[in-house]
Amino acid sequence: QDIDEAMGPTHIWPGTHTEYFCSFYKPRMLGPVDPYYTDNPPELMTVKAGDAVLMDTRVMHCGGLNNSKMDRMLLHFSFETQGQINAPSGKISAQQSPWSSLGGKKHYLG
């Protein structure tokens, strides 16, 4: 299913998954009225049928308002490391990146 702006795609705020942001800024935020949201417009995850969005769940995100007459479909799953005391910093090198093996190419499902 294509998701366009009228369907209320997921909104994300890139960079909000970093160790600094998670430990310093997020605990001090004022909820939905925090100026961060108006000062930093979100990226809208508009996608075509078969596309996949992979993201760190620490990234601030929310669903947008669906103004269309269609239901928005979503398949969500997550992975977790058991026994991990401290969350990773969000910084990885090119050698550690799980995307290195993809050679910078986009891959689509379906």
Please sum up the structure shown.
This protein is largely without helices or strands.
Q: Explain this structure to me?
A:
By secondary structure, this protein is low in regular secondary structure. Helix content is 11%, strand content 9%. The protein has 2 helices and 3 strands, in the order E-H-H-E-E. Strands 2-1-3 form a 3-stranded antiparallel sheet, with no helix packed on it. The longest helix is centred in the N-terminal third of the chain and has 7 residues, at 19-25. The radius of gyration is 16 Å and the shape is globular. It starts with 9 loop residues before the first strand and ends in a 47-residue tail after the last strand. Mean pLDDT is 79; it is low at 92-102 and 104-110.
Radius of gyration: 16 Å
Number of helices: 2
Share of helical residues: 10-25%
Structural class: little secondary structure
User: Unreliable stretches, pLDDT < 50, 5 or more residues?
Assistant: 92-102, 104-110
Which sheet architecture does the biggest sheet show? Answer: 3 strands, antiparallel
Give the distance, in angstroms, between the N- and C-terminal Cα atoms. 11 Å
Q: What's the count of strands?
A: 3
Shape estimate: globular
Which strand order spans the largest sheet, edge to edge or round the barrel?
A: 2-1-3
